[in-house]
Amino acid sequence: MYDFENMDQRLIAYVNIFVCANRLQAIMDSGLEDITAKQWLAITMIDAFPEPPTLKQMAEMSGVTHQSMRQIVDRLIDKGFLEVVPDKKDKRAIRLVKTEAANNIRTKKADQNISFVYRLFDCLSNEETTAYCSALAKLCDRLNELKEENDS
Questions:
Q1: Does some domain include residue 103?
Q2: Given a cut of 80, is residue 12 above it in pLDDT?
Q3: What are phi and psi of 85, to 5 degrees?
Q4: Whole-prediction pTM value?
Q5: For the chain, how many structural domains are there in total?
Q6: 113 vs 44, higher pLDDT
Q7: Which terminal residue of the chain has fewer beta carbons within 10 Å of its beta carbon, N or C?
Q8: Domain hosting residue 130, numbered range
Q9: Residue 43 to residues 2, 13, 100: CA-CA distances in angstroms?
Q10: Does 19 fall in a domain?
Q11: Within-domain flag for 150
Q12: What is the DSSP string of 53-97?
Protein backbone atom coordinates (compact mmCIF):
# COMPACT_ATOMS: atom_id res chain seq x y z
CA MET A 1 0.00 0.00 0.00
CA TYR A 2 1.06 3.58 -0.49
CA ASP A 3 2.34 5.54 2.48
CA PHE A 4 0.93 8.95 1.56
CA GLU A 5 2.07 10.53 4.82
CA ASN A 6 5.70 9.86 3.98
CA MET A 7 5.49 10.09 0.19
CA ASP A 8 7.23 12.97 -1.55
CA GLN A 9 4.63 15.73 -1.94
CA ARG A 10 5.77 16.36 -5.51
CA LEU A 11 4.73 12.84 -6.49
CA ILE A 12 1.35 13.25 -4.83
CA ALA A 13 0.85 16.61 -6.58
CA TYR A 14 1.87 15.09 -9.93
CA VAL A 15 -0.65 12.28 -9.62
CA ASN A 16 -3.34 14.68 -8.42
CA ILE A 17 -2.93 16.80 -11.56
CA PHE A 18 -4.10 13.82 -13.60
CA VAL A 19 -6.81 12.82 -11.15
CA CYS A 20 -8.26 16.35 -11.10
CA ALA A 21 -8.06 16.66 -14.89
CA ASN A 22 -9.87 13.34 -15.37
CA ARG A 23 -12.58 14.19 -12.85
CA LEU A 24 -13.09 17.67 -14.31
CA GLN A 25 -13.36 16.27 -17.82
CA ALA A 26 -15.87 13.62 -16.71
CA ILE A 27 -18.04 16.21 -14.93
CA MET A 28 -17.90 18.60 -17.87
CA ASP A 29 -18.59 15.87 -20.44
CA SER A 30 -21.69 14.84 -18.50
CA GLY A 31 -22.90 18.44 -18.31
CA LEU A 32 -22.50 19.44 -21.96
CA GLU A 33 -25.14 18.51 -24.51
CA ASP A 34 -23.55 18.60 -27.93
CA ILE A 35 -19.81 18.68 -27.33
CA THR A 36 -17.06 17.29 -25.15
CA ALA A 37 -15.03 19.21 -22.57
CA LYS A 38 -12.05 19.31 -24.93
CA GLN A 39 -14.20 20.70 -27.72
CA TRP A 40 -15.63 23.30 -25.33
CA LEU A 41 -12.10 24.28 -24.31
CA ALA A 42 -11.09 24.76 -27.95
CA ILE A 43 -14.07 27.02 -28.57
CA THR A 44 -13.34 28.99 -25.41
CA MET A 45 -9.66 29.43 -26.28
CA ILE A 46 -10.53 31.25 -29.51
CA ASP A 47 -11.57 34.26 -27.43
CA ALA A 48 -8.04 34.51 -26.01
CA PHE A 49 -6.64 35.59 -29.39
CA PRO A 50 -6.84 39.14 -30.77
CA GLU A 51 -7.87 37.75 -34.17
CA PRO A 52 -9.19 34.35 -35.21
CA PRO A 53 -6.37 31.89 -34.48
CA THR A 54 -4.73 29.38 -36.76
CA LEU A 55 -4.83 25.68 -36.03
CA LYS A 56 -1.15 25.87 -35.08
CA GLN A 57 -1.79 28.65 -32.55
CA MET A 58 -4.63 26.66 -31.02
CA ALA A 59 -2.49 23.54 -30.71
CA GLU A 60 0.35 25.48 -29.10
CA MET A 61 -1.90 27.23 -26.60
CA SER A 62 -3.65 24.04 -25.54
CA GLY A 63 -0.51 21.95 -25.35
CA VAL A 64 -1.72 19.25 -27.72
CA THR A 65 -0.31 18.10 -31.03
CA HIS A 66 -1.37 19.68 -34.29
CA GLN A 67 -3.01 16.38 -35.24
CA SER A 68 -5.03 16.19 -32.00
CA MET A 69 -6.22 19.77 -32.35
CA ARG A 70 -7.11 19.07 -35.98
CA GLN A 71 -9.39 16.22 -34.88
CA ILE A 72 -11.10 18.44 -32.30
CA VAL A 73 -11.53 21.28 -34.80
CA ASP A 74 -12.83 18.97 -37.52
CA ARG A 75 -15.55 17.70 -35.19
CA LEU A 76 -16.48 21.26 -34.23
CA ILE A 77 -16.70 22.23 -37.90
CA ASP A 78 -18.89 19.18 -38.62
CA LYS A 79 -21.18 20.17 -35.73
CA GLY A 80 -21.43 23.75 -36.97
CA PHE A 81 -19.57 25.40 -34.09
CA LEU A 82 -16.54 26.59 -36.08
CA GLU A 83 -15.91 27.90 -39.56
CA VAL A 84 -12.63 27.94 -41.45
CA VAL A 85 -11.55 31.21 -43.03
CA PRO A 86 -8.45 31.47 -45.25
CA ASP A 87 -5.69 33.68 -43.86
CA LYS A 88 -5.35 36.88 -45.88
CA LYS A 89 -1.55 36.95 -45.61
CA ASP A 90 -0.59 33.26 -45.70
CA LYS A 91 -2.46 31.15 -48.26
CA ARG A 92 -1.43 27.95 -46.46
CA ALA A 93 -2.90 28.98 -43.11
CA ILE A 94 -6.51 28.80 -42.06
CA ARG A 95 -8.17 30.80 -39.31
CA LEU A 96 -10.82 29.43 -36.99
CA VAL A 97 -13.95 31.47 -36.38
CA LYS A 98 -16.73 30.69 -33.92
CA THR A 99 -20.24 30.47 -35.28
CA GLU A 100 -23.39 31.71 -33.61
CA ALA A 101 -24.02 28.12 -32.51
CA ALA A 102 -20.72 28.16 -30.61
CA ASN A 103 -21.83 31.28 -28.76
CA ASN A 104 -25.01 29.48 -27.73
CA ILE A 105 -23.65 26.13 -26.57
CA ARG A 106 -26.18 24.42 -24.41
CA THR A 107 -25.55 22.61 -21.21
CA LYS A 108 -27.81 20.24 -19.38
CA LYS A 109 -27.84 22.68 -16.47
CA ALA A 110 -27.41 26.08 -18.12
CA ASP A 111 -27.83 28.02 -14.91
CA GLN A 112 -24.93 26.18 -13.29
CA ASN A 113 -22.08 27.01 -15.70
CA ILE A 114 -20.31 29.76 -13.79
CA SER A 115 -21.76 28.50 -10.54
CA PHE A 116 -19.82 25.26 -11.00
CA VAL A 117 -16.51 27.14 -11.20
CA TYR A 118 -17.29 29.10 -8.04
CA ARG A 119 -18.42 25.97 -6.24
CA LEU A 120 -15.24 24.16 -7.29
CA PHE A 121 -13.03 26.86 -5.80
CA ASP A 122 -15.11 27.80 -2.76
CA CYS A 123 -13.13 25.30 -0.69
CA LEU A 124 -10.09 27.58 -1.09
CA SER A 125 -9.54 30.95 0.55
CA ASN A 126 -8.66 33.95 -1.62
CA GLU A 127 -5.04 33.53 -0.55
CA GLU A 128 -5.05 29.84 -1.45
CA THR A 129 -6.63 30.57 -4.85
CA THR A 130 -3.98 33.21 -5.55
CA ALA A 131 -1.21 30.82 -4.48
CA TYR A 132 -2.73 28.04 -6.60
CA CYS A 133 -2.88 30.28 -9.68
CA SER A 134 0.70 31.40 -9.14
CA ALA A 135 1.98 27.85 -8.65
CA LEU A 136 0.04 26.57 -11.65
CA ALA A 137 1.48 29.34 -13.85
CA LYS A 138 4.98 28.38 -12.72
CA LEU A 139 4.31 24.72 -13.51
CA CYS A 140 3.02 25.64 -16.97
CA ASP A 141 6.13 27.73 -17.61
CA ARG A 142 8.31 24.85 -16.44
CA LEU A 143 6.47 22.42 -18.71
CA ASN A 144 7.17 24.74 -21.65
CA GLU A 145 10.87 24.73 -20.72
CA LEU A 146 10.91 20.94 -20.44
CA LYS A 147 9.14 20.62 -23.79
CA GLU A 148 11.74 22.82 -25.44
CA GLU A 149 14.53 20.73 -23.88
CA ASN A 150 12.81 17.56 -25.08
CA ASP A 151 12.30 18.92 -28.60
CA SER A 152 15.96 19.88 -29.05
A1: no
A2: yes
A3: -125, 130
A4: 0.78
A5: 1
A6: 44
A7: N
A8: 122-152
A9: 40, 29, 12
A10: no
A11: yes
A12: PBHHHHHHHHT--HHHHHHHHHHHHHTTSEEEEE-SS-TT-EEEE
